[in-house]
Protein: HTH CENPB-type domain-containing protein
Organism: Popillia japonica
Amino acid sequence: MCNRTTARFLCVHKNWLEGKVFIEGLHPVSNVQEGTAVLTPPTEKDAVTSKGRPTKRFAACNESTKRKKIQHLLKCSREELTMATQMKLREEGERDAARLVKMVSGPNNSAIKATTIKKLIACPTKLPTKLSVEKALALYIDNKFTKEQYMLYTIQQISKELNANIYPSYENLLTAKKECYPNNILITDISAEINLQSLLNHTIHRLVTAQIEVLESRIEDYDPTSISIIFKWGCDGASGHSCYKQAFENSDCDDSFLFIISLVPLRMSATSTENNNQIVLWQNPIPSSTKYCRPIKIMFHKETADFTRAEVGKIKAQIEDLVPANVEIRGQRCSIHPRLLLTMIDGKICSTLTHISGQNCHICGATPKLMNNLEEVRRRPVDEESLELGMSSLHAWIKCFECLLPIAYSLDIKTWQIKKAVKEFLEKNPRPNPFANNCAGDGWYKSFLRRHPEISVRMYVRSCYCC
């Protein structure tokens, strides 16, 4: 038709040449140069739209189908499959996985390496955990370590040598220790004291920091504005301390006497949102121990009645001016109300504050003579203000023991039951006393020293010093 003429062929078949040709399984790529045709292989999307059953991905096939698809790969050797796996992993950027395949499938001790890796995956090795600064500081203080013991000789150095550097540095310990100190500390030549409000704020903030996980996890169960914390406080004096050649501005002060006022946190609680009951958020595990004791004032002064009343009055005046401590729990501002109870006192302090003799009951004022008449004691009025001082169970046990001792003194010495035949035998055959009628020159004494040479050496040394 065109007689092999190009111009005529282009003119006659112009529409066909400018049209698009679709081949099943291949698709043209757009934006290519004129006069060229580029075909690309079909994608997964095209496979779905193509005729016949769609081809599944290998990962989506079941076990039997996977085995059928890899039958042609089983004809390859182990080295070829390993090399192909490594090259494919490197192509996809999985260099660590490729290195692991090479390590496991290597010719040298591959079985041992594979077993080792399997054990590590099944039972992963627990790496040492760094000890927190607060726990390390508690360990440092409880064991009374020195700086050299912590850094050089025992704790930190040994852990570093064993590749388990779990202890923080000594500088971090000092920083954490400074955070334990409250503000507004006043120190003179005879005393050291701290403002009560500053001490309570610092104590509450430290407790909240230590219990922040409990407070945040249970914040839905309690009212954050109803948190309160109970403290017990008191005072006591001591005498008979060593005197040093230290001059004081006040000549009445003496370092042989010591007077201290302190407090102990007991419980932190809040009101429940459901039934208005108290929810315990923290409780002192050892309320009678000095571990949680917080000193308010320490001074060189003799414990007298007037001085005790004056110091207790100063603390009560500060208690009246207390304000709640503000803390933040899960982004919410909360106020914690402190409550102080004067119960950490002994019988002498109690008698001083109530102006009642130590032999009398500070609650009802009964004398020792009236205590024998229980009916009279029950009819006596109770002093409500004295109940604020508490009733120490320890002091109650001491008073009961003091009552039992005079009763025990008046009783005859009791012996256990013994049968008549045994008693007659012991009277006829008394037990020999090995220490009776012995002197330094007899055979028993010499044999005794031979069995106990340390006593002989001690006696010899003592005789040398006496000479």
